[in-house]
Amino acid sequence: MKSQAVLAIWVDIDPSDDALFEYWHSREHMQERVGCPGWLRGSRFKGIETPGRYLLLYDAETAATFESDIYYTRLRSPTPMSRAIFPKFRDTWRTVCNVEQRWGDGIGAAALTLRMAAANTAPFDKLAAPETARVDLLAGQSGIGQAHTTEKDLRANTDRQIERALVAFFWSVPAAIAARDRHAPEGEVFALRHTVSKADLEHAQ
Description:
Number of domains: 1
Number of strands: 8
CATH class: Alpha Beta
Largest sheet: 8 strands, antiparallel, barrel
Strand content: 35-45%
Structural class: alpha+beta
Radius of gyration: 16 Å
Shape: globular
CATH architecture: 2-Layer Sandwich
Distance between the termini: 21 Å
Strand order of the largest sheet: 1-3-2-8-5-7-6-4
């Protein structure tokens, strides 16, 4: 089944914690999340202009995926490593989103993100171009995946939510920067660090 929903997270991590954060996210957290029913892929991107900022994206079958009992059981029983990492999260934006519009598929080497109010017009059509792998227009679902959990308590500040976002994936960082400068100057550019799909986990078993 194709992804109809995305869990989008922007988070700042102190550079001194980068190695531990990336190890945790790649070797434990993505496997734990993508192993849940309905989760299809987890990806981590690192900011270009703001190296301490990360973009974490999880593709799922539907928004209801983020309300499953299995998922909430994991949120309420974090691993020892998760208990060490979540207090390090700063300026966290975390929102379950429906895919309002999509062009292309997969992911690319870089991502351009633009957070916006629901009424704002996104440059979706301008970004659907030969140098782009995929463009998502996301609509935040404020009531989904927001129940009280232990993981939320571990984060120092309350998660903020987006109303709408544009996420465009490119073949290269320079292509993402060029598109940002032309069409979304207030956007942020991130470079891909790691991605894990459901098929990857099944193959490893």
